Amino acid sequence: MALLLSAMLVSAPVVWAQPAAMGVVLLAVGAQQGSGGISAGATVFDGDQFRTIADGVLRLRIGAAQVHLEGGSAVTLRRAEYGTQAILLGGAMSVSAAPAAPVGIAVNGAALRTVGDRLTVAQVSILGPKEFYVVVRRGALEFSYNGESEVIPEGSMYRAVLDPPPGLPAANQAPLPVRAAGRSRAKYKLYIIIPIAWATEWAIHEVFESPNRP
Asked: Where are the beta strands (DSSP E) in 82-147?
């Protein structure tokens, strides 16, 4: 009996140490969870990695937040002390987060986090190892990199360039029209893109608000 009880005590932590469930898959077309396929209704666990093929799409519900992964993209989801962290590994993703369900996005070593007391709807697209677009349709995002931070306000679209070479003009770093008078610090530059990409904004609207979507 003593040996049996000892064996149960040793094996019990292995049974209990299961990954924590975070949410559920709402829509999955051409998507993978780890190395296998994924479908709507599947459970999302802490540490799961998701990928989509070129014309795939994936939408997840994490509590009161939603994460939408576009085609040819990859993300890892983690539970954070403030809520949910989405580590964007490639491609583009959109988030919709209520104040009670903050979402952080790690991208290229930088961090973005929903802030404020309003619904936040935003999109992040990786352009290269040191560059990405960020669009804030509603609410605001706090941008942080190497100890420096600032808030990206509602209704703005920026091209972020991390560790920019000194003196490199904005025109050499962005295929879209930009204002040279962006926000610039030693460790990064945020270039204002004009006009804001209405096609991208409408796509975000369709993802999170259209009644024609599942």
From this structure: 83-90, 92-97, 103-107, 110-115, 120-128, 131-138, 140-145
Round the CA-based radius of gyration of the chain to a whole number and report it.
Answer: 20
Query: Model confidence at 172, in pLDDT bands (50, 70, 90)?
Result: very low
The whole-model pTM stands at 0.77
Q: Which residue in 26, 14, 58, 24 sits closest to 44, CA to CA?
A: 24
Residues 6+ apart with CB under 8 A from 145: 109, 110, 111, 162, 187, 188
Q: What is the pLDDT of residue 210?
A: 46
The tens digit of pLDDT for each residue in 89-141 reads 999 999 999 998 899 999 999 999 999 899 999 999 999 999 999 999 999 99
Residue 70: which of 58, 62, 80 has the closest Cα? 58
The helix or strand, by DSSP H or E, that contains position 11, with its residue range, turns out to be: helix 2-16
- As a residue count, the chain comes to 214
Rounded to an integer, what distance in angstroms lies between the CA atom of residue 212 and that of residue 79? 31
Phi, psi angle pair for 147, to nearest 5° = 85, -5
Nearest CA to 122 out of 146, 144, 92 is that of 92
Q: Which residue has the tokens 């190497």?
A: 146
Q: What is the largest CA-CA distance in the chain?
A: 77
Those residues whose C-beta lies under 8 Å from the C-beta of residue 87, and which sit 6 or more positions away, are 75, 76, 77, 78, 105, 106, 107
The domains located in the chain, with CATH, are: 74-209 (2.60.120)
- The mean pLDDT of 171-189, rounded to a whole number, is 52
